[in-house]
Predict the structure.
Amino acid sequence: MGAHPAPITVTASIAVRSAGGKHDFYSEGDYWWPDPDHPDGPYIRRDGLSNPDNFVDHRLAMIRFSRIVGALVSAWKLTGDEKYVQHALRHVSAWFIDADTRMNPSLLYAQAIKGRVTGRGIGIIDTIHLIEVAKALGILEEAGLLGKSVCQGTKKWFADYLAWLTTHPYGIEEMNAKNNHGTCWVMQVAAFASYTGNVKLIRQCADRYKTVLLPQQMAKDGSFPLEIERTKPYGYSLFNLDAMAAICSLLPKSGTDLWYDGMADGRSIGKGIQYMLPFVQDKGRWPYARDVMYWDNWPVAQPFLFLGALAYGNQELLHTWVSLEHRPTEEEVIRNLPIRYPLLWL
């Protein structure tokens, strides 16, 4: 990471195709490409195939921010040296508070498609990389290391973003998505509501997990049919299970233990882990199609293994997690791995 890297926020890169301003996060739909028959016309969809010419600067900056804050707060937890906290808070202030560099607390221009839309609800998934930032801020607040102005400023930012996520048509659309997008909406709202102390939203997230996510997304054997029918069924199944495990870890104050609270027919996070574990230990046993891209890059040290090991005291999950890749370099894998720093979850 280098010595004391300077903050880089959305204001560092201006996207010429963005309909927003310099403080607005912008990204483009991954699977949309120029139409070879109409090069200057609207983009066309090629599911599962990412367009390498898309604008990704803001997404990469947010991932960098998440990794820096996660690493620095983990370093403080290990050493007790508050210099790591001070460096982390420089980045936090740049993203959420400082007028010149802060990001607006909305995602109006994410996952845009040239010639079609200036932004989409499914772009909300891009802010999964703020989950460990919110987790780190909660840890620092509890330790009395956040400072009044940073605490108030960051809580206002996340409260404003939660209001947008839960009322704007994009947010409602994403909440109602029936695949990993709907899961990631709940995961994000759970993380941000936990930091801001929004008990009502915390309880709503727990209820939505039990009454919507499990019954709509998980089959009785623990698989995810809506992910399996995609062009990257293996990677998406891992991603969705990671997000569900994160939800269970984020909501201990919801009034129920989601690690043990499942459906009458046996569907639960435990069933999902039980289903995927053999295919993580031996990918060759995967009974469905291979992913059209990045098949060779999965699995890595999946968060559901670590979080499940913590929740159940399961040594097999822990040993499997330890044995896998903890420092992936493929951008697509990093993008779909918002939980990277175990010390933030202990």
The mean pLDDT is 95. The first strand starts at residue 26 and ends at 28. The two ends are 23 Å apart (CA to CA). The first helix runs from residue 57 to 79.
